[in-house]
Amino acid sequence: MNRTGICLFVWLLVAVVSAVAAEVPVEAELPSIRGWRNDGSGRFDSVTAGPTEWGPDKNIRWKTQLPHRSNASPILVDGRLYVCAEPDELVCVAADTGRILWRQATTYLDLPTDQQLEPATRALLEQARAAQLKRFKPDGLDLGHHPNMIGDANEAPAQFRRPDVHVDAGYTTPTPVSDGHNVLALFATGLVTSFDAGGKRRWTVLPEKPVIRWGQAASPIIVGGRLIVHTEHCWALDIATGAVAWSTPARRRWATPVALHAGTQDLIVLGGGEVLRASDGNVVADLFPHQDRCDCYVNYWGMSSPVAAGESVYFVDATPNTDKTPPSVQRFDLKPASEGRIEFARRWRVDVPSGKYFASPVLYDGRLYLVASTLRHQGEKGYDAVLNRRVDGTLLALNAKTGELIFAHEIGKDTGTYHTLTSAGGKLWITGHRGITVVVEASQSYRELARNSLEATRSHPLFVGNDLIIRGCEDLYRIGGGR
Q1: Whose CA, among 68, 210, 400, 455, lies 20 to 30 Å from 330?
Q2: What local confidence, expressed as pLDDT, does residue 33 receive?
Q3: What is the 3-state secondary structure of the chain?
Q4: How many CB atoms lie within 10 A of CB 322?
């Protein structure tokens, strides 16, 4: 090729690359953050259909038995699903075939140390892990009002002793999170760890052991390039190394934090109402100023995770669930103020039907949807007998601008839930703890499209294209047949 031909070829190559770059926005080249509730919203806007009908022998593309149950939801990163298994495992599954690619446990033994562990101590820890696995019920439905707490024997050294948890909650309720390069997991032991896609551990750290009653439930999120973990404090960790960037004392909550952007600031809103600046962890606003700790026998505020849209944040059951203060839904609007503070205004507050648990909401087409788990059919055994059974679910829709109740519809027995709603393709997926998934239209009125049943589940659905991923207590399913 002569010089003229080479120049022409280079010119054409540059033109083609420039044309392609012009069609692809810069955001599309950046790795996406995936974690609990997909991106924190519970929405899968790219889904156009999604399956509405399935069963044990209908529309199941594959089914994979997992090592043990878990309340954590699966996440999808580059064709791989990441799920947890009690008491301390992260499991990687191929999304196309369901084949388990790798499993990795994370224990206190994975922390960096120069000390040599005595063989007797190592054997004791291994025995304690095996004993705990036998105490976790496979279906995860040991729901007593007075929690049956389990932990490690006192004979174990304090630094290796796991915090007490309820057998229903376990150690793997937090959902992992990924920035597209790293897969990061938090366990109720307080351990935080990072893996690459091939299962190679990058680091493990222990900021602190959580001691919230019933166990750690708040999942980690990624904000401003840092991993945010809410245990006894809110911690910001460097994703590459696990080093602490900052920590801020915070109220104990089960709710997963939510990120939003106000003005030029990245903010983190905690389930207890504190608003933190992501860059340094400073509390720049407090939506519910009080000193109370979370009492799981008296109030359940901070169980449902807030949801954000623009500079607005919505809380469900944000105040104590008592006779004097009924459960409520509230919207706050935030805006920057002087000296780095955040001003906020409560746009509206509405009381909602009394219930034991409220699923984290989803915002869709100007409506806020939530599920209340109501206490009905008490019979002769009284309140305590049904307190944790979540007998009935009620779907509520509110006008996101005004708070006006659009409708409230009971969706039936065993549909009560305290995990989350999912929206995709103009539909809502409501997955109850006993494995019943109700699919309804996300519209101004209640219209049920299908009611399906698999095994008991404690996590929210996930979409791979138009296929649905459901993590049961024992198995992981990929469901097709979307239309």
Answers
A1: 210
A2: 85
A3: CCHHHHHHHHHHHHHHHHHHHHHCCHHHHCCCCEECHHHHCCEECCCCCCCCCCECCECEEEEEECCCCCCCCCEEECCEEEEEECCCEEEEEECCCCCEEEEEECCHHHCCCCCCCCHHHHHHHHHHHHHHHHHCCCCCCCCCCCCCEECCCCCCCHHHCCCCEECCCCCCCCCCEECCCCEEEECCCCCEEEECCCCCEEEEECCCCCCCCCCCCCCCEEECCEEEEECCEEEEEECCCCCEEEEEECCCCCCCCEEEEECCEEEEECCCCEEEECCCCCEEEECCCCCCCCCCCCCCCCCCCCEEECCEEEEECCCCCCCCCCCEEEEEEEEECHHHCEEEEEEEEEECCCCCEECECEEECCEEEEEEEECCCCHHHCHHHHCCCCCEEEEEEEECCCCCEEEEEEEEECCCCCCEEEEECCEEEEECCCCEEEEEECCCCCCEEEEEECCCECCCCEEECCEEEEEECCEEEEECCCC
A4: 11
| Within a domain: 24 | no
* 230-253 tens-digit pLDDT: 998 999 999 999 999 999 999 888
Both tokens assigned to 309: 């849209």
Number of CB atoms found within 10 A of residue 450's CB: 14
| CATH number of the domain encompassing residue 392 | 2.130.10.10
Name, in order, each residue with C-beta under 8 angstroms of 382's C-beta and a sequence gap of 6 or more. Answer: none
Segments in the chain below pLDDT 70: 1-31, 114-116, 137-148, 153-155, 290-302, 318-325, 353-356, 374-391, 416-419, 482-483
The terminus-to-terminus CA distance of the chain in angstroms comes to: 53
Q: Quick check: is 2 in a domain? A: no
Specify if 16 maps to a domain: no
Structure token pair of residue 116: 């040599």
Range(s) of the domain holding residue 205:
31-479
Instruction: Give yes or no for a contact between 35 and 176, defined as CB atoms under 8 angstroms apart.
Output: yes
Paired with 439 in beta bridges are: 429, 450
CB-neighbour burial class of residue 111 (10 A; exposed 0-12, middle 13-18, buried 19+): middle
Token reading at 168: 């229903």
Query: How far is the C-alpha of 224 from the C-alpha of 260, rounded, in Å?
Result: 11
Beta bridge partners of 382: none
In a domain, 26, yes or no: no
The closest of 332, 312, 331, 335 to 265, measured between CA atoms, is: 335
Largest Cα span, the chain: 95
Beta bridge partners of 266: 261
**Cβ(106)–Cβ(90) under 8 Å?**
yes
Tally the domains of the chain.
1
